[in-house]
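Q: What would this complex look like in 3D?
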Amino acid sequence: MKNIAVFTSGGDAPGMNACIRAVVRAGIYYGLNVYGIVRGYAGMISGDIRKLESHSVSNIIQRGGTILKSARCEEFKTKEGRAKAYEQIRKHEIDGLVAIGGNGTFTGAQIFYEEYGIPTVGAPGTIDNDLYGTDYTIGFDTAVNTALDAIDKIRDTADSHDRVFFIEVMGRDSGYIALRSGIGGGAELVMIPERPNSIERVIETLRSGKFNSKTSSIVIVAEGEQIGNANSVAHQVRQELSELDIRVTTLGHIQRGGSPTALDRIIASRMGVAAVEGLLEGKKNVMAGIINNEIIYTPFIDTITKKKPLLQDLLRMLPILRI
Amino acid sequence: MKNIAVFTSGGDAPGMNACIRAVVRAGIYYGLNVYGIVRGYAGMISGDIRKLESHSVSNIIQRGGTILKSARCEEFKTKEGRAKAYEQIRKHEIDGLVAIGGNGTFTGAQIFYEEYGIPTVGAPGTIDNDLYGTDYTIGFDTAVNTALDAIDKIRDTADSHDRVFFIEVMGRDSGYIALRSGIGGGAELVMIPERPNSIERVIETLRSGKFNSKTSSIVIVAEGEQIGNANSVAHQVRQELSELDIRVTTLGHIQRGGSPTALDRIIASRMGVAAVEGLLEGKKNVMAGIINNEIIYTPFIDTITKKKPLLQDLLRMLPILRI
Amino acid sequence: MKNIAVFTSGGDAPGMNACIRAVVRAGIYYGLNVYGIVRGYAGMISGDIRKLESHSVSNIIQRGGTILKSARCEEFKTKEGRAKAYEQIRKHEIDGLVAIGGNGTFTGAQIFYEEYGIPTVGAPGTIDNDLYGTDYTIGFDTAVNTALDAIDKIRDTADSHDRVFFIEVMGRDSGYIALRSGIGGGAELVMIPERPNSIERVIETLRSGKFNSKTSSIVIVAEGEQIGNANSVAHQVRQELSELDIRVTTLGHIQRGGSPTALDRIIASRMGVAAVEGLLEGKKNVMAGIINNEIIYTPFIDTITKKKPLLQDLLRMLPILRI
Amino acid sequence: MKNIAVFTSGGDAPGMNACIRAVVRAGIYYGLNVYGIVRGYAGMISGDIRKLESHSVSNIIQRGGTILKSARCEEFKTKEGRAKAYEQIRKHEIDGLVAIGGNGTFTGAQIFYEEYGIPTVGAPGTIDNDLYGTDYTIGFDTAVNTALDAIDKIRDTADSHDRVFFIEVMGRDSGYIALRSGIGGGAELVMIPERPNSIERVIETLRSGKFNSKTSSIVIVAEGEQIGNANSVAHQVRQELSELDIRVTTLGHIQRGGSPTALDRIIASRMGVAAVEGLLEGKKNVMAGIINNEIIYTPFIDTITKKKPLLQDLLRMLPILRI
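A: Here is my prediction, written as structure tokens for the whole assembly.
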């Protein structure tokens, strides 16, 4: 192996730059040339590929977003698109790829390998933490801390006005951000897609909090919550508990940005180094994750098809901590 | 004057606690007893009034929200409500009031003085900065910095995905937060209620930015913008510029909370001291504001009826800085 | 078991309040009365013990420091001191203790059990992360992120002036904070007590960085570094590399304070709940730690005598990432 | 005027990048070519000068430090050095300069004008706020907020352990940072170079705080304090008040870095635009400052020779607020 390329794909996540830096430096450390592909598969098709040196990734470890940019690419889902991409890969004599992204990204990489034999090792870059094969995904800890910081601010005003706040956090299919920011934020309730909720239970909990003379409450609602988003849940609760002063806030895209936390920079760096080392050892179609503090390579097929379990220990704490 | 009371009223704002602390300590410094009234006029009516000592306000200068809480109070708008409030004020032998809030608060205080002769000096506590008689209101600088921090985070993701973001900030009748966070955040456009906008101008600006090969853009929309909120403006722009990837984020209540900035703590402290000194000098129905770094007492009637001008110097910079 | 008490002891750490909250609420959840002992063993001796209710710990999860305060206590090391402490414990009919602190705290608790039969379950509260029996101690993640934030700020000015900065972080016997903040901060070198360093190696690394046209560099030095503190190391390097513009910053006590990160709030909450549940199950002289995401109770004797290994994976990344 | 150049000189300050951006964009807006000189006068002499476009300054408004770097330059103090510099200026056909820095920078610019007729308009870039001719210098508000954030963190631990902390902040000849961060941080005492202090007064104040049963205290010491730095003052106090648990922290270079606050970005932008407009109006040897919210051009000779007064209103609040 002589030349490798790195790219980011799917939704951006804080820590992607730390991972890019680690890939570039590990590549150089092991004697490889490292290329950066701009805008993921789109740049692979259009040939937006540039050589990266050690100094190209200086002073980026602390930056949110991704210097290589990210984009959706429908064209890569077609045979023609992938043929063009291979053309560019061949032109730059690239022998291996590091893909920083999620399951959509890994699916593309797997097909690309089957067709053209270019091996890819992945690194899990998504704030949602919903990838099987790793305890933490890159960006998750930062997103949780950003949500928490917002919850802390909202608690100030909730408390000053004796209000109930419904706060919607990211996580379309996954309650990870909701659960951790909810526990960390001292929320009364956390509503997540993985666990059936009923409006009745929500109402009951808020009513008993009121009864216990709590003057303010926070309810965290994950984007993908099945009985509705934060606005809709709040609306339903208002019908029953008109004595509560209820407000809604949707945190939105602030959760995607910002300087990564220490944890995100560290796991991103470890995964970046491990991805390069994996390629050098001949690995392909695997994701470099961290389980119990150790690097584990999990086949793409597992990250794509298997469901990561929620931490039961957090779930069971909710009724204890809100007492 | 022997006994004074302090209360917060209207929307809470970061720095209110620093102001309460300054009122309490200045009162004690000048030999007064200082009472705190909980939940503004509502607590005045219900008699939720407690004596505050120096240590009651220890370690609160850095906290968001208000330890005295705030609430709307319809009852104080009635003659009967104010009679009950006066009963409580008389019972505690309170000779003067410090009201931290906005124009609604000051209106109530003025009527209360006319009916019962209890003098009030106000301090401007509102994140919107829309009070005549002061360069800065308590909480404004913090709200702007909170909005800015969110804009910085969103720029990370906007830039990574080449997107246009419409970000809605607080300010129902006022573009102060929008203007300062927009200039500070490097926004292409800032849409504020004080200045007529047209969708055409917005579209034109974004189109020419695209033409100048800007890959991402930020548009700040104040809550009270006349041609619609951020969602509605974004919707209209999407019709015309379908090639842009447009997203919307509404920052919401995070702008009300958080630890106050240095500037907010300092002006809140100055205004709190000045409010007590104003009462001692026999002032009434005035707000202690800061203009050109000096304490100025402005009659409530002026803060209520006069309109504060926007800083033209900021407005005129927008087309220069987005070039 | 009917009555338990919780206290914090040793150096304070962010997240201690989240742990206190969890102990109080878990205690109440399981039908116990929960007392708080102020200033650790000192308050146990003097009888500064108060009943805590659910609302006593409202709105503290986000606060640094410890609402129960902490203090050194020489008297508890004497038989007479412990006799007085037992007097107070008996007076309040306390059946079990939760001690949040480090090895000094646990040693005292073990002796107290041997003499008076009062069981203690510990929770690891120290920013240094040097306790055997847990992957993370309470406060460690916050301290690392605080150090990292400072390193990021210093990198701005280092880069603007092409300087080399030696930054001293906390960790008298332990390089955990140094290693994680160094990796996260993109440091060239990390000097820790666990691994022998030589001035020659430091000079060599900085010289080769200069050679590779790096214009600025960061060196992290742990407090307990054997060849000297940051000032002394910098002094020695200056003798050899007079062409470098070298500065020194000692981060100091800022690393102990601040609002805890999500991770610290979550592990502190889990450990607090686990400590109460441990007591109820009859456990004693053990610390509730988290290893591989699961609660593990480790005997005090092991936390005190065994040495926690450094994560080799981080150490070996340093030469790769600085290339 | 057709070509202008901008540079940063002296100690770096957060907001310098926002000012550079404003200079570049205002220059382009008014039809000029704008050059950036790297490392201040050193780059002027060596010819490290590059053309800047609008996109060269994209996405830098939020960054600390200066993308143009800064350096001391002894050579420019010599006639020969300035002759070389002029050679480069002539070669690039530069007609005017914008210098972002302090009095050292402005002195150089004035001499350069007298010798070669190249006009300079300055912008006040220094965290110390000690420049006559402007209410705020670029970087000052950020430095104060950074110091304040550190003080807040230290207060957590001071309070948990009932300690007295002496915190040294920047300001060699100026107490501005000390005074504002001290008021904002709720300090008992602020020691600044502009006002004579005595150890006796410090001891007296701390003793009476102890008497008033304050359990923890913060004393802010400006770098340039005449009776000694924080360590030395603390040492003297310890002799007299051995019952206090006294600690010292020196904040150091973290005060120079970090993302600029809203205020710093806004004044930096205004001053940058004003500097370019000043050049276009034929101004020279003046600094574009902001006094009472308006742009004022002050002759270099005044910024250099006149002393800016401290805000008396802040000084007189200290004994009131610590009661």
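A: To summarize the key features: The interface with chain A takes residues 8, 12, 14, 63-66, 69-71, 146, 150, 152-157, 159-162, 165, 247, 249-254, 256-258 of chain B (CB under 8 Å). The first helix of chain B runs from residue 16 to 29.
Q: Very helpful, thank you.
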